[in-house]
């Protein structure tokens, strides 16, 4: 696993002090011996923030619980234990012509993690979130009971567990519905745009015509080049490979550099080369699914390049009617501080609703920025990005966060208290402790004062 053992992928938060095996965690729950706030499931450590950490408690390592239990080659429904990686599911189903309907930017996330974070991909406009394709799940809670959950069976737990950040109990296994595809290969088209105005003109038509659409922004470009980038669209090739292959072994960052390698001079050169290489031809081209969906999976431990202090990722979503003003404002705020984002991604969310009680994607445009952790300067920038986002009626992604305030979480997710009401009392995360629990304590204090 990348980074320190049982640490978030952003490497900006301390590693977990206490870890137990999945077997021990299951035994503790079945015996009803789990203490209040003591546990949290840990998948493969690909969360950027502290939603996968429980600083005051114990993590349950779910990775050994990784069997694929059943697969229906006619319907594409696959059942697996929650520690199975998406890469395992892809490898199992690909020869039969199936692929996950929704994948995030890495295939090295666990099934349980994908559900708990209700991850999204490049085709939200067509398929919604990962949770839209969960048929059922098995949940173990601290009352010692195992719950079979679906849209019709324990539906209250089903909706709360999808996107519930692992707080409703231990996801033991799940069944998901895969998508039939003609091949794993992608026909990709790269369309350059000179500014954000051009991107917004292209975005809706790109979504209507393609399964996948996402834009890369040259965040460092200034003057008349500000907001330039590339719009990538893609569809599964009618004729191509059905063979899955593992990435991650070709290149790797073998140790933690003592400084941030992804500095401004490097990013300036990288952006210029990337834009030239990817945008030199606008003709459709066949690409492998790994390069299209999971480009960074080919570089092991790439998060180490941000240096010993790690990175913060900021992802926001803003309503479509204000995006033309707000997205440039977010990019301008980062540029004013001189902090460059290695990966700057912009895409359009659609209207497909998730079954989740809490879910980040909603109609509008979502912008993702990655920043090296430079201490207070970076935290101040992120706070400003939060402010711009919520004042525009948008939301900040909690699943990737390591520092947002309780007020920002409440503004982004005003129904947070509904998850708190269903949360298993034995489960807690560092994120929930510093946001929802603070909000609850503030509410109790207000009531007491009245």
From TrEMBL:
InterPro entries: FAD-bd_PCMH (IPR016166), FAD-bd_PCMH-like_sf (IPR036318), FAD-bd_PCMH_sub1 (IPR016167), FAD-bd_PCMH_sub2 (IPR016169), FAD_lactone_oxidase-like (IPR010031), Oxid_FAD_bind_N (IPR006094)
One example GO MF annotation: oxidoreductase activity, acting on the CH-OH group of donors, oxygen as acceptor
Keyword set, alphabetical order: FAD, Flavoprotein
Ranges of residues in domain FAD-binding PCMH-type: 1-181
PROSITE patterns registered for this protein in UniProt: FAD_PCMH
Pfam families: FAD_binding_4
SUPFAM superfamilies for this protein: FAD-binding/transporter-associated domain-like
PANTHER family, per the entry: D-ARABINONO-1,4-LACTONE OXIDASE (PTHR43762:SF1), L-GULONOLACTONE OXIDASE (PTHR43762)
The protein's name: FAD linked oxidase domain protein
Organism of origin: Mesorhizobium metallidurans STM 2683
